[in-house]
Amino acid sequence: MKVTASANANIALVKYWGKRNEQLILPQNSSISMTCDGLRTVTTVEFSDNYKKDTVVINDEELKKDEKNIIGHLDRIRKLARIKSKARIVSETNFPVAAGLASSASGLAALTLAATRSAGITMDEKELTILTRMGSGSAARSVCEGFAIWHRGNKEDGSDSFAETIAGKNHWPEFRMITTIVTESKKKVSSRAGMAQTVKTSPYYNGWLDSVDDDLTKVADGIKRKDFQTVGLAAEANCLKMHALMLTTKPAIIYWHPATVEIIRAVTQWREEGLPCYFTIDAGPNVKVICASMNEKEI
Ligand code: DP6
Q1: In angstroms, rounded to a whole number, what is the distance separating the alpha carbons of residues 15 and 102?
Q2: Which three-class secondary structure state does DSSP give residue 197?
Q3: How far is CA 132 from CA 27, 76, 128, 258, 277, in A?
Q4: Which of 163, 189, 210, 290 has the most neighbouring CB atoms within 10 Å?
Q5: Is the shortest distance between the CB of 241 and ligand 1 below 6 Å?
Q6: 55, 189 Cβ separation under 8 angstroms
Q7: Ligand 1: which residue has its CA nearest to atom 12?
Q8: Which atom of ligand 1 sits closest to the CA of residue 133?
Q9: In Å, how far from its chain's centre is CA 230?
Q10: Closest listed residue to residue 91, CA positions, set 144, 132, 143, 45
Q11: What is the number of the ligand 1 atom nearest to the C-alpha of 242?
């Protein structure tokens, strides 16, 4: 059956940066994100015995290299469904891929949903987040609407490392995330390779692990109480801490461009002038600005 599914990107307010199990994609820490309604991937999957090989087309371009191990993810789904057919995957995003705008998150989430349905498997949301997680960690959160937490979990088999919504999309409709596009070019170091190198080499990694639970509590409480300042300040500090890990990785991972720093400085200055806004940045140069809807236009 040919099935189309859509999923939206999510931007983490408390970041995931490091795995405790690379095969199953089990994180070192829990993370919290917001699923964004403006950044969307629509993916169509068709398993058919007429196909001789798997093909993946993203934004009209056929993938030559299996970047996020998409075929590995399909194999996982084929195994669950006990089928051998090859698939054709056609995916469209309305934003640049691989530039730190979480394209792999919405991509893997939409792929998992479309491919499981196409292969005849039905799963509940929790099971879907676990399966999606094995394709790409942050993608597990894109299965969930609104604000989502991806639990670190403690079990070796990953059965307790799933994502769930902590506040639905109607909980805080004034919350905005503005994405700036500093560059659309692909980044040189993938999140996957970068975080593995950080866990191995950054002398600050234990400091990250020791302080991340506090960030999680602040952000989760702030979301619950709709306390903009608490969420914004904690998200910004957590993002800077993650970039400090990147900078202290050997060899250093520097995702920022001059314009990244310009936007950081602008956001900080606007805040000093009384315009409430905060920034967050993922594994790329593009800055996301967090603000309330009443200030969206001005920012
Ligand atoms: C900086 O989820 O892309 O965006 O699990 O190896 O596929 P893999 O990594 P990925 O890493 C995302 C890292 C991040 C932070 C975050 O989204 O929490």
Answers
A1: 12
A2: helix
A3: 14, 10, 6, 34, 32
A4: 163
A5: no
A6: no
A7: 138
A8: 5
A9: 22
A10: 45
A11: 1
